[in-house]
């Protein structure tokens, strides 16, 4: 049984549990393409894949959501953007919706994954903000802000009902985390294997933090002397954590303790198809990554793609 990207595996009192159950994901056929072209000028960042061979990618240029059939590599625009970025994306298969981090827009959107309609929008901040990534649990949706020492929480109802705007929680962060103004701070986010806390990477320092969702206290994860420079999107499977290191053009594989307080780098993998990958999703026997091409000056005609590599 394969787990949907970003969904967790444990059941604890604080509610950090999977938003949807595990689903059977057949291994991709060998004829599945490994190069997935995107519209020129798209500037991809986030990618998410649900229980079916369909990927959803966000544009940091204008916020469009592009949908791709992994079996054919063909795709189309599912949802027009608001003119501000779409960054981290997660699929809520049980309720047929996407949660999208809004970058410099300081917001989050909830999109119908069938029609592309915007079901809800939440404005977190209007200045000095970069809402970057997102993780779903059964009781809440959490967003990082790379410019602020805060997490944003959308509490969900008993049956997944979306909150009213006045129910959004701003959780100030304290402890070991030191936010550097003007830098990309907290970025990718997942839950710990035991479901007791959240794990978020700090791109500018290469550090990983364990965050108490009740208090906001951030404790630096012991990486046994290693560092994760340029850390971006994250994917956790059991006690294995995969961290995309964008400008390093590699993905790190780590072994976590159950509570997420310690981690050990097992290996790092690169690929000839990488061109500053940003985020990762999985389906069957493959990982899928967006090539953000951060080091390439963007133009309306700049080509972009996502690539598939074998799981490791």
Commentary on this structure:
This protein is mostly beta strands and 312 residues long. It contains no helices and 25 strands. The protein has strands spanning 35-38, 44-49, 54-59, 65-69, 75-79, 89-92, 97-101, 107-112, 118-123, 131-136, 140-145, 150-155, 169-172, 174-175, 186-191, 198-202, 207-211, 217-220, 231-237, 240-245, 250-256, 263-269, 277-283, 286-291, 304-310. It has a five-stranded mixed β-sheet, with no helix packed on it.
Short descriptors:
312 residues; four-stranded antiparallel beta sheet; 25 strands; globular
Q: Shape from CA axes?
A: globular
Portion in strands: 35-45%
Cα separation of the termini: 17 Å
What structural class should be given to the helix and strand makeup?
mainly beta
Strand order of the largest sheet: 14-18-17-16-15
Mean pLDDT: 92
Tally of DSSP helical segments = 0
User: Would you report the number of β strands?
Assistant: 25
Describe the main β-sheet briefly: 5 strands, mixed
The level of helicity is: under 10%
The low-confidence runs, each spanning 5 or more residues with pLDDT under 50, are 1-26
Order of helices and strands: EEEEEEEEEEEEEEEEEEEEEEEEE
Radius of gyration: 17 Å
Secondary structure elements and pairings:
Layout: E1 35-38, E2 44-49, E3 54-59, E4 65-69, E5 75-79, E6 89-92, E7 97-101, E8 107-112, E9 118-123, E10 131-136, E11 140-145, E12 150-155, E13 169-172, E14 174-175, E15 186-191, E16 198-202, E17 207-211, E18 217-220, E19 231-237, E20 240-245, E21 250-256, E22 263-269, E23 277-283, E24 286-291, E25 304-310
């Amino acid at each position: 049984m394969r787990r949907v990207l970003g969904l967790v595996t444990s059941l604890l009192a604080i509610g950090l549990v999977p938003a949807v159950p595990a689903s059977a994901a057949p291994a991709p056929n060998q004829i599945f393409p490994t190069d997935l072209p995107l519209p020129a000028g798209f500037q991809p960042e986030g990618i998410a894949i649900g229980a079916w061979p369909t990927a959803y990618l966000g544009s940091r240029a204008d916020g469009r959501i592009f949908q791709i059939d992994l079996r054919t590599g063909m795709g189309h625009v599912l949802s027009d953007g608001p003119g501000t970025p779409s960054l981290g994306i997660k699929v809520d298969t049980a309720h047929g919706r996407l949660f999208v981090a809004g970058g410099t827009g300081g917001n989050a959107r909830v999109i119908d994954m069938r029609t592309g309609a915007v079901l809800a929008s939440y404005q977190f901040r209007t200045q000095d903000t970069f809402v970057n990534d997102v993780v779903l649990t059964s009781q809440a949706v959490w967003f990082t802000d790379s410019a602020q020492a805060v997490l944003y929480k959308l509490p969900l109802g008993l049956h997944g009902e979306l909150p009213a705007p006045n129910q959004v929680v701003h959780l100030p962060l304290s402890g070991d985390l030191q936010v550097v103004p003007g830098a990309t701070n907290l970025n990718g986010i997942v839950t710990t294997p035991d479901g007791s806390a959240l794990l978020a990477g700090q791109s500018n320092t290469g550090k990983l933090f364990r965050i108490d969702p009740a208090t906001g206290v951030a404790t630096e994860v012991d990486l046994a002397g290693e560092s994760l420079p340029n850390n971006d999107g994250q994917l956790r499977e059991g006690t294995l954590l995969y961290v995309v290191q964008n400008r390093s053009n590699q993905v790190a594989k780590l072994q976590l303790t159950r509570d997420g307080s310690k981690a050990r780098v097992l290996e790092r993998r690169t690929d000839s198809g990488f061109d500053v990958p940003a985020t990762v999703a999985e389906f069957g026997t493959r990982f899928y990554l967006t090539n953000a091409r951060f080091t390439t000056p963007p133009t309306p005609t700049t080509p972009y793609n996502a690539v598939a590599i074998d799981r490791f």
